[in-house]
Amino acid sequence: MPNWLLPENIADVLPSEARKIEELRRLMLDNFRLYGYELVMPPLLEYLESLLTGAGEDTDLRTFKLVDQLSGRMLGLRADMTTQVARIDAHLLNRSSVTRLCYAGSVLHTRPSGLHATREPLQIGAEIYGHAGLEADAEIQELALASLALAGFPEVRLDLTHVGVLRAIIEGDAAALKDEARLYLALRAKDVPDLQELTKDYAPTVRDALLALPNLYGGIDVLKKARETLPDLPAISKALAELAALAASAIDRAEVAIDLADLRGYQYESGAMFALYVPGLPNAVARGGRYDHVGEAFGRARPATGFSLDLRELARLLPTAERKHSIRAPWGNAPELKEKIAELRKSGEVVIQSMPGHDSELDEFECDRALVLDDNGSNWILKNLG
């Protein structure tokens, strides 16, 4: 095997693609700052027990694990930055007021999330801590939609769901509570036969409500159908009201859909959740939601909601950027030449000096002008190249 081959679903990012990713990263982080979000940079690896605190089983399975050569303790390479940022809020910042944090960095997965997905996503996201009201959920949802709009995706579908619906349905049924993990998997896959088998011994009202969930998807009118179909419980009424408010806040910015069986992230989410879809990608390009109990695992319960997306996956959907117009200049140490090049670069021009005896092969730049001496050989001027 050639020694330059990379592991499966791990790839180098070449110049034109790297530029797209970096421009998206800067664009989104700058926009986060306009909303008042502060940038944090968690470490790539942590002690395993800290990294997985408050995370679900999915995160555990996706985490690379290794032994620390200094302490002998188990370390984990982060598969998701959300719990790391929650730890920073809970222990390092330790604020009592509302805190807005954002982040961007590579994460590693033991297995790809999809057929062509990378195992090294570049995750970017934003989180709000300290406010339990729907205002925080609405802001995070707005920020996620604004991020995709800035990236050049005007057509977006917003899928909404709420973990409180399932939890309210099974709360009073011991058999259903025992099967909670299996119910989650069956609902997520919309596996009705498995759901029928699982629920055969449940209380009739619980069984009927669970079997109704896979069919409660579609437009906003699904919420009306859900109110008529599901048990009249305060927690369910509250969850549906929250979904209605979030749907109304986004109706003019995205196609809104409701799917009460889409419970991806159910294990650590605690309220409303959303997923964003764009043309050209079957999977969600961004996911977000409320996860109030994660901070409790760090010894300091804080309401929390946020979203994240993979910049590498997003950039792959965008067209290749046009090559940037640039200036070719000769190599030399003449003070007049160096002064002219510095002046051009200061004005925002890309100036590429040719190394002696070499031609330039560039993916990102197109040299359409050259820096040359005038006819008198005394001044450096720009000449258009044909």
TrEMBL record:
SUPFAM superfamilies: Class II aaRS and biotin synthetases (SSF55681)
UniProt cross-references to NCBIfam families, sorted A to Z: hisZ_biosyn_reg, PRK12292.1-1, PRK12421.1
Entries under InterPro entries matching the protein: aa-tRNA-synth_II/BPL/LPL, HisRS-like_core, HisRS/HisZ, HisZ
Ranges annotated as spanning the membrane: none
Top-level division of the source organism's lineage: Bacteria
Keywords: Amino-acid biosynthesis, Cytoplasm, Glycosyltransferase, Histidine biosynthesis, Transferase
Pathway(s) of this molecule: Amino-acid biosynthesis; L-histidine biosynthesis; L-histidine from 5-phospho-alpha-D-ribose 1-diphosphate: step 1/9
Something else known: This function is generally fulfilled by the C-terminal part of HisG, which is missing in some bacteria such as this one.
Cellular localization per UniProt: Cytoplasm
Single Gene Ontology MF annotation: glycosyltransferase activity
Protein name: ATP phosphoribosyltransferase regulatory subunit
Family classification: Belongs to the class-II aminoacyl-tRNA synthetase family. HisZ subfamily.
Ranges of residues in domain Class II Histidinyl-tRNA synthetase (HisRS)-like catalytic core: 10-314
Gene encoding the protein: hisZ
Major subcellular location class: cytoplasm
Protein's UniProt keywords contain GTP-binding: no
Species this protein is from: Duganella aceris
Function, as annotated: Required for the first step of histidine biosynthesis. May allow the feedback regulation of ATP phosphoribosyltransferase activity by histidine.
Subunit description: Heteromultimer composed of HisG and HisZ subunits.
